[in-house]
Design goal:
The strands form two sheets. The chain has an eight-stranded mixed β-sheet with strand order 6-7-8-3-9-10-12-11, sandwiched between helices. A four-stranded antiparallel β-sheet has the order 2-1-4-5, with helices on one face. The protein has eleven helices and twelve strands. The protein has a single domain, classed as Rossmann fold (3-Layer(aba) Sandwich), CATH 3.40.50.300. It is globular and about 65 Å long. 31% of the residues lie in helices and 22% in strands. Helix 3 packs across helix 4. The structure holds adenosine-5'-diphosphate and magnesium ion. Adenosine-5'-diphosphate (ADP) binds next to strand 1 and helix 1.
């Protein structure tokens, strides 16, 4: 592993009226430079909290970062001051959000918005900035950049808006892009276009991408590796192919079964998987109450991640012989 981007023992909670709620519990997440890594989980799994924690955009309180480190290029982001983070956001690490309208200002043309980013961050003249803005619009493969520059966000389609947001996110030369469900509100054909664009930009610019979605089929189209996030814990991780074709965690199976054809985003937010109530509290596996393959040990003990292969890891007692996740041999059921 390159040590380019490494999360260790990250634990994030929220203070609520009912006490502190544990939202993220990540033992380890490592990204290599230049790869596209997918995070998949249903609504409420903690995907956005993870993205916001990386960029230090979570409000603390109510959020509490209890422990952990997020090393990026050898520096722990969790120890940075707000002033230091302002230099990292946009310039080193950038984020695109689910809803492009939350990034775009409705009262300015998109051209003006991109021009301002260049004038403010790169200290360019208006003329130079306009030239750069045109080339950014070309870069995100929107035809007739000059015409697009003069449009207001509401005059563009959802897909066009998301392309503009990607252009803005990459305009300051960020090398790490977090895409938080960027295709969620788009039609299937438009989704495919955005995925293709992200893949092309990743190759052309060499950026590292953390691609967040609620659909494993969709993510595996563009990601080398994926992690399945369930109630704040990574329960399975591996090469996209390994997890898609050889998933070993019952929750991953359910996620896959919920997607007809495995290639389009049809897992609706908040959909409850079969098996009963959402979540278990206490010490055991958080999937216990919904798991069709649960055993007594699952309620009693959190399963540690165990290796299926050098690249494929699963945190499930059932996946290993004798109910021990530490063992290497798969039970075959
Ligand atoms: N400000 C907040 N206060 C309390 N709980 C929150 C807050 N923001 C998010 N959460 C909780 O954190 C969990 C993860 O949320 P989120 O990261 O938005 O999920 P996802 O992006 O995977 O749909 C959810 O249970 C959500 O209710
Ligand atoms: Mg989210």
């Amino acid at each position: 592993m390159s040590g380019y981007f490494e999360i260790e023992n990250l634990n994030v909670g929220f203070k609520t009226f009912e006490g502190e709620k544990n939202v993220l519990d990540i033992d380890s997440l490592v990204l290599d430079k230049g790869e596209t890594f997918g995070i998949v989980g249903e609504s409420g799994a903690g995907k956005t909290v993870l993205a916001l924690t990386i960029l230090r955009l979570l409000s603390t309180p109510p959020a509490v970062i209890r422990s952990g480190s997020i090393n990026f290029n050898g520096e722990n982001l969790l120890q940075k001051t707000e002033k230091e983070m302002r230099r990292i956001r946009g310039r080193k690490i950038s984020m695109i959000f689910q809803d492009p309208m939350s990034t775009l200002n409705p009262v300015f043309t998109v051209g003006e918005q991109i021009v301002r980013v260049f004038m403010n961050n790169k200290k360019l003249s208006r003329k130079e900035a306009a030239k750069e803005a045109l080339s950014m619009i070309d870069m995100v493969k929107l035809p007739d950049a000059g015409n697009i520059m003069g449009k207001y966000p509401h005059e563009l389609s959802g897909g066009q808006r998301q392309r503009i947001v990607i252009a803005i996110a990459l305009s300051c030369g960020a090398e790490f892009l977090i895409a938080d469900e960027p295709t969620r509100n788009l039609d299937v054909t438009i989704q495919a276009g955005i995925l293709k664009l992200v893949a092309e930009l990743q190759r052309e610019l060499g950026v590292t991408v953390l691609f967040i979605a609620n659909n494993l089929g969709l993510v595996s189209v563009i990601c080398n590796r994926v992690a399945i996030l369930h109630e704040g814990r990574i329960i399975e991780t591996g090469k996209a192919r390994e997890v898609l074709r050889g998933s070993r965690h019952p929750y991953t199976h359910t996620l896959l079964n919920a997607v007809p054809g495995g290639s389009v985003e049809r897992v609706l937010p908040g959909v409850l998987m079969p098996g009963g109530e959402k979540g278990t509290s206490g010490e055991g596996c958080r999937y216990y109450s919904r798991c069709p393959e649960r055993q007594d040990i699952c309620r009693a003990r959190v399963p540690d991640p165990g290796e299926i292969s050098g690249t494929h890891t699963v945190a499930c007692h059932r996946a290993f012989k004798g109910g021990e996740a530490g063992a290497k041999e798969y039970s075959g059921s």
